[in-house]
Amino acid sequence: MPLFFIIDTMKNITLILLITITSNLSSQSINFTGHLTSPRTDTVYWAADALKILTFASEKTSSCYLCFINNTDSLYEKNCFSSISGHCMLDTNMKVSKKDILGEWKLIEGGIFEIRDSLFNDNEKLIRTITIHDYLQEGTNLLITNNKMRIETIENNKSKIKQKKYSLIKDYHLSIKGFFGQQCSYSNIGVTNEGLLIIDNSMSYSKIIKYDEYFTFITKIQRSIFKKIKQPN
After folding, report:
1. Residue at 165 is within a domain
2. Model-level pTM?
3. Which tens digit of pLDDT belongs to each residue from 22-55?
4. Does a structural domain hold residue 4?
5. What whole-number distance in Å separates Cα of residue 42 and Cα of residue 38?
6. Residue 23: burial class (beta carbons within 10 Å; 0-12, 13-18, 19+)
């Protein structure tokens, strides 16, 4: 019998995995939606795994997100924005040092993807869907120096350049200083074994429970993958 656990736009691609209650940890292919830490799909472990991932972020980075809750007799819904984590996030084993990210990088993949885990009361299966939105493969160059990031984008055939200060937190989180020194802009950052730079930001998550019917947890991640084109001077 399934259990319900309660824990506190250009090109679209949808991948659907139907997973039985006794399935093992889902494998992640090395692609745009890969390099994730995600809950095991066996419902015996799902809740504990999801809670551990959701609370992985440091206290400093977790202070910026904003949540809204709607609770009725039949439905519980929680939506959180500007979060550094969800029930899935960038591989938490991907630690980086500043020397790993210095240099000039070119965007090779970017976009937003959504991971949706659903459990229905009548079929004893966890359904995981992954949907990619606004997928693109070009358009941004990134120069990272010791304390600044220089971002160049092309919009309407015109080059736009932004430069901001940054810092690394616990070799996994990226803090970018905004206007007036505000530091509530955080991302997760890592470098793959193939030398690709991954930056995940603008994360949000939703938890929806229809009592006695279904449970759904949704995490949305804005991801940019860069290839190094020039070593630092």
Report:
1. yes
2. 0.81
3. 222 233 334 899 999 999 888 888 889 988 888 7
4. no
5. 12
6. middle
